[in-house]
Specification:
8 strands; globular; two-stranded antiparallel sheet; disordered N terminus
């Protein structure tokens, strides 16, 4: 033992680097682990399932704030949907300022609006994300519109997407009306869990964004935009889900209606949504 210690000291005096048995083996093992994980992530994403990208995060994204941004695919006469384009644009920018955005493109149907809520219902007390921002298109919108509440109203393919949503004419008791509840046992309305006090009015008054901007709205309509918002909020409340990496009481969930791209470009709208994300995640 003494000879081994003396030899080690002599080698160190000569400038030889100190190494430990198995050092190279562990190094190569780590490389193989990273490679396998990366391949699995690529495979899962390439399989095309809308809920698969969050199943496995690559190592370079761990420790950062994770935000899910959903955008609906084209529907009706639309050939493109600004919501889908903006979600994809935000995700394409990669991680910045400690925030990584995952885009999820959803079909405009019942299966699409159940995707996120179903994923959350299978989560433990903490969500896979730190915030969720749903994006939808509103053809008559005059600007970006933050929805502050969702109604317990089931979407109908026979109802116009721009039809008015909950109001004094749509009581919580929908018996005898054309409206059906998403869940008969759930509340009539659910408010956004995002911290609205951080989304102050000077934000949309910037000259960088077109005017006018309708910041607040309590009527998300009676189509799938409202339904996905309500279903996600209901899953958060029922699961008492908190953000993945910090200690907010509930996972922030927000819905934003976007105007046509002729009114606000994809790049401009993406910049506004990024600022909203920065505010609600305390960046």
């Amino acid at each position: 033992m003494g000879r081994e210690a003396s030899l080690r000291e002599a080698l160190l005096r000569e400038g030889a680097p100190e190494r430990h048995f198995g050092e190279h083996a562990h190094g190569w093992r780590d490389v193989w682990v990273y490679a396998v994980v990366a391949c699995l992530f690529i495979l899962l994403v390439s399989m095309g399932g809308p809920a698969q990208p969050f199943l496995l995060l690559p190592f370079f994204m761990r420790g950062k704030i994770q935000v899910l941004v959903t955008g609906f695919e084209p529907f009706g006469d639309l050939t493109t949907n600004p919501a889908q384009l903006v979600a994809a644009h935000l995700a394409s920018e990669g991680c910045k300022a400690g925030v990584c955005i995952t885009a999820m493109h959803l079909p405009v149907n019942r299966s699409g609006v159940e995707t996120v809520a179903d994923a959350l219902s299978q989560s433990p007390s903490n969500s896979p994300w730190d915030a969720i921002v749903h994006l939808g298109y509103e053809s008559v919108s005059k600007g970006l519109r933050v929805e502050i509440a969702a109604a317990n109203l089931l979407a109908s393919d026979h109802r116009s997407p721009s039809a008015p949503g909950w109001s004094a004419d749509v009581p919580c008791n929908t018996t005898g009306t054309e409206f059906e509840p998403i869940d008969p046992e759930a509340p009539c309305l659910l408010a956004t869990t995002a911290p609205l006090d951080r989304i102050d009015l000077p934000l949309p008054m910037s000259p960088d964004y077109p005017q006018p901007l309708e910041l607040w709205s309590r009527d998300a309509g009676t189509y799938y935009c409202n339904e996905i918002f309500y279903r996600t909020l209901l899953a958060v409340h029922r699961g008492h889900l908190r953000p993945r990496s910090h200690h907010a009481v509930l996972l922030p969930v927000l819905f934003v209606h976007l105007p046509p791209t002729s009114f606000s470009s994809v790049e401009t709208t993406s910049g506004f949504i990024w600022k909203l994300i920065a505010r609600i995640t305390k960046i």
